[in-house]
Amino acid sequence: MALLLPLVSAVQSTGDRRLVPAFEPSERIYNYSPCFVLGDRPGAAHIWYCANRRPGDVTDYLCHRMATRAGRGWRWSEEAVALGPAGSRSDWDSRHVCDPEVIAGRYRYKGQYWRYAMLYLGCDSERSTHNQIGVAFADSLDGPWTRYPNPIVRYTDDPEAGIVDHFLGWPVYRQWGVGQPAAVSLDRKGKLLLFFSRGEGHWGAEQAELDLSDMDRGPLLGPRSKLPTAGLRNVGAEGPVVITNIGVALDERQNRLYMVREGLPNADTRFPGFISAYVQVASIPWTDIRNGRGTWRIIAQVDHARTGWPRNHNATFMKDLWGRVVSSDRLTVAVSVAEAFESPPPDFEWLWTYRMGLVEMSTSEPSSR
Fold it and tell me: What is this structure's pTM?
């Protein structure tokens, strides 16, 4: 049965109120890292996200739900698998697939043109290593999705970054790799501006032009550059700003690119300490970021004060099928939330608290923290 839940605006106090999850998964199931876009017909939206399929089993799948407007809320369909790990251990994405990003266009692959591309992180390893970025194509937002067989942004070729251990029968590599893609269509065809996280010797977000127009020829990835950090600040900690795990949305009329980035891990001594306590929403002139420069304007933090949850992470914006904002005045942030504990709980109990909620805000909202 479809679920009808309200679109909950930001919580303004740290009392008992909490952001209501968009939908509740079954026990010992996690939901996080959404891609949330308006559909190809009025009043419809689609969300893709990372989830495990069997209770208690930590294996990432890309799952999908459709939503239709019902007053101020959404009526959500049942969950379906959009893309699972590849079937053979020789495949580069055979262990986990996560962090979906869906962009409309006109993509040639296997001698035909496809309407939608889904970028995603995949790996064939354990301990969050050897991540790479791949793509799949479909003619419908409901799928089915046809996987391109090779990564389009690859793990480093540094010979020192190879296998260093094994865990649960899977190799463990020295470095995290590349992943967590976000994108904006540049021509509403096959050219994208791709943003992604990199953890190979240094951490940070990079951008590059990516041409998926003719995948029978193969992807064309342009020069990679780090995102500017001017204007951003850490909350609750000193030190340099490192941009990772971002969502983006473009407002061409206002010449603004909006970004929601994951903040620093929380310093409250509760577990998990490696999950962010807040995500930060900011904007930058589009013409500046296209040239690899510019100064960000912080709009807001989505944190415990706004959601009532101690962990807030893996966020994105509601946007259209080409990565544009829905409104120049309002943003809807789809944020992953989670519980925190005084000490590490048994049996991955912290992981089963991962949920996703929706927070609305003004694009002109001044940051108060």
Answer: 0.94
